[in-house]
Design a protein that fits this description.
The protein has about 500 residues and is of the alpha/beta class. It is built from 14 helices and 23 strands. The chain has a 6-stranded mixed β-sheet. Strands 2-1-3-10-4 form a 5-stranded mixed β-sheet, with helices on both faces. A 5-stranded mixed β-sheet has the order 7-6-8-5-9, sandwiched between helices. The N and C termini lie far apart (about 65 Å).
Length: about 500
């Protein structure tokens, strides 16, 4: 096959996505010529009807699918989340490639940040449902009233509408924004510069999947072909990312169980991490049933099989987990005050208890939701969180440009990829002697583990668990293969209770 024709919608984002797939094919078939064509769909032509009022199936895809069937194109590239959960006969989703960010992003006017009565553009019932519960806690103004308004159009059109209106914010898929800002196509350089220019008067917030799971398949590209075209199917087999394909199919299957479709008030996200899989499910079914699940399924080698041997656990309550008092380092205030246009990673909210002089130009990222909400109550704008998945699971740089990252921690914290700003020091407390008889531990920090093992070396061969991320990495260097990851302490405790 000498020439391959790829069809997509006409929007800049759709064309960028088609080119991403085309370039991937050229890596395997460098002599092939790629031809790109575009077509308006029903959803592109009707920009007045809100999405949740339009037909459920194929509003952005049927017209393109017909071009495939008529053999006017060889394959189509879609945003997978636009596809109906049930595909019609004649074509199939034959491949996908690596997935972009699953999360949504909130773009917000800087002069609207103090307001406690806000309005936000989004046409998604899922976003309206889940963000009406999360944003009143997550925004520094702690708004008492949030109004959601419908919006249509491509990325730059929607941002223009926001800036030209009295509406305060706009929610969209982060993957869409990333693909425009990170694209290297000269064809859409003007679009990229225009979007970047808008951010002079806007702030942004990446919304966590634990509170606002994505639409099924969000961030993934669906490559559609004719079901019986063996030549194209063989080509697509070369580029298919099987792991992403399985993850997306799992999300779509879950949504289908609740009726399927973009009219649902349900978000579902499935992530495959090095240590296992994370599933987030949240929203409300058509029958009014509330859904709220955040689960971690470890791989076999990270599963603790010792629960039949439980005699005692530590801690029995989370408030008893700390082996240290914290002493504020006053000199840190000066260092924090001087940081500008950088990233600041906060693993514990009390690391900033005595400091209120962080510049607004900085990007603030937290280790989890609890830290986020604690800081937002202090009036701090939070840009995003690792969502308890570990420090390395979040973007190391600003969505707009590369920046230097600092981490707020204690003075003895191990150095990683971020420069440490010590705002407190750890003061050891006397350890209770009964710890030496405990069979199952959950550690909130590697420092606590190291201190306990130093005092009572005999506990090193007991069962040890902790959260994902840096704590797991540090304890694993001491007892490789003998520490077990959990999403949170409550999950470990529930497993303990079930075993008993």
């Amino acid at each position: 096959m000498k020439t391959l024709t790829i069809i997509s919608r006409k929007s800049p984002l759709a064309q960028i996505q088609a080119e991403i797939v085309g370039k991937r094919i050229l890596k395997y078939f460098p002599k092939m010529e790629i031809k790109y064509i575009q077509k308006d769909t029903q959803g592109d032509i009707d920009l007045n009807t809100p999405l949740n009022k339009m037909p459920e199936i194929g509003v952005f895809t049927n017209d393109i699918r017909n071009e495939l069937i008529e053999k006017n194109a060889d394959l189509a590239v879609h945003s997978w989340k636009d596809l109906p959960v049930e595909m019609e006969e004649g074509t199939k989703i034959s491949a996908t490639i690596e997935r972009a960010d699953l999360r949504d992003i909130l773009i917000f006017k800087k002069n609207s940040i103090p307001k406690d009565d806000i309005s936000i553009y989004t046409s998604s019932p899922r976003r309206k449902e889940n963000l009406s519960n999360f944003l009143p806690k997550a925004l520094p103004s702690q708004p008492k009233k949030i109004k959601f308004l419908n919006i249509r159009g491509n990325i730059s059109t929607r941002i223009k509408k926001l800036i030209g209106s009295d509406v305060d914010g706009l929610v969209m898929a982060k993957a869409a924004l990333d693909r425009i800002l990170n694209g290297d196509s000269t064809k859409f350089l003007k679009e990229k510069k225009e979007v970047l220019s808008f951010f002079k008067e806007l702030n942004w917030m990446v919304l966590p999947l634990s509170e606002n799971p994505s639409a099924p398949a969000q961030g993934a590209l669906a490559i559609e072909s004719r079901s019986n075209d063996e030549v194209i199917l063989e080509i697509l087999t070369k580029i298919n990312n099987e792991e992403v394909f399985k993850s997306v199919e799992k999300e779509r299957k879950i949504l289908k169980e609740y009726g399927g479709g973009c009219h649902q008030k349900i978000g579902v996200s499935h992530q495959i991490l090095e240590m296992g899989e994370v599933l987030n499910l949240k929203g409300e079914t058509e029958e009014g049933i509330r859904l709220n699940e955040n689960s971690f399924f470890p791989k076999a080698k990270f599963t603790d099989e010792s629960f039949s041997k439980i005699q005692s656990i530590y801690p029995e309550k989370l408030e008893n987990s700390s082996f240290f008092d914290r002493e504020t380092i006053e000199d840190s205030s000066r260092a924090l005050k001087d940081i500008n246009n950088s990233g600041i990673y906060v693993s514990r909210s009390n690391g900033l208890d005595s400091f209120n002089n962080i510049k607004d130009s900085n990007t603030i990222w937290t280790s989890g939701i609890k830290t986020w909400l604690s800081l937002s109550r202090k009036g701090i704008w939070i840009n995003g969180t690792s969502d308890s998945l570990g420090e390395m699971e979040s973007p190391p740089e600003n969505i707009l440009k590369k920046i230097k990252w600092y981490k707020i921690s204690h003075e003895a914290a191990p150095k990683g990829d971020k420069e440490i700003i010590p705002t407190y020091r750890l003061i050891k407390k006397e350890l209770p002697e009964e710890i030496k008889n405990v069979t199952h531990f959950y550690w909130m920090s590697a420092s606590s583990f190291e201190y306990a093992v130093e005092k009572y070396p005999e506990i090193i061969d007991r069962s040890h668990a902790c959260g994902l991320g840096r704590t797991f990495e540090e304890i694993s260097t001491i007892i490789p293969g003998k520490v077990y990851p959990y999403l949170k302490y409550q999950d470990w405790l529930e497993k303990i209770k079930q075993a008993k």
